[in-house]
Amino acid sequence: MTTMETFHLLQPYRIAEETFVIPWALEAPPVGHFPMNSMVIRGSEPVLVDTGAPAVRSQWLEAAWSVVDPLDVRWIFLTHDDRDHAGNLLAVLAECPNATLLTTWFSIGRMAEEWETPINRCRFMIDGDTVDVGDRTLVAKRPPLYDNPTTRALFDPKTDVLWAVDTFATNVPAPIPEIADLSADEFREGQFFGGRLVSPWVALLDGRKFGAVVDDFQRLDAEVIAGCHSPVLRGPRIAEAYDLLRRLPEIPAWPEFTQADLDQWMAVAEGSVPPEQPRPSAT
């Protein structure tokens, strides 16, 4: 297991047999950091699960190819088309000529606003579909929480690893590999904050109906849960996370930061905010 001492952003770490998370995080004042992860399954037909953020394209590609040769990649599972998940898709398709993109009709349409996805390299994979990737059969599943209508989670029954996408999103004081590194209070408050931030509509839901959706997702019986916006969950924290998830419809909506908040932050930071600069090259 990766420890805090051996954890570094954009350095892949093993979470299960032949399964690696590529970690990144976005600083998000005043609430700490938000993980921005993706995953690689290195089995007999390697799978990339999401393609990282364009802000760190060159570093992300280097990290991914440190785990698997791009010419060996056979599948790219795109959970949905948001930029933090699909931001490097065209670069990945270009470097992985033998890969098929597992996506949805609606995702292709949504991405057409920015680029044309090569439809001849696509296979549609909707909720409940499975795909044989040689030494395992992966299952697509719509998760309980999401911020994009095309979202599907991915479950690997061979390792009992679940990629939960944006469900279980949480802010963290600093980037960490495992959610066990959070205190009980940080864990609870992070689940409530992240869930309402990603899916503000959860406050509108019937708790009983939502609970049935959560129960169905939990019946996958994952032993390891990874996701884009969360450190890895294991052991008792998995059951705790599901229990907290069921409570979300009862909790008032998260009050968004307002212009008054921004004015206050800028007043405190006056004189220390550097001129706006472009991010480092992501080519």
Automatic annotation (TrEMBL):
InterPro entries: Metallo-B-lactamas, RibonucZ/Hydroxyglut_hydro. It comes from the Bacteria. Pfam families: Lactamase_B (PF00753). SUPFAM superfamilies: Metallo-hydrolase/oxidoreductase (SSF56281). Residues 35-208 form the Metallo-beta-lactamase domain. This is Metallo-beta-lactamase domain-containing protein. It comes from Streptomyces flaveus.
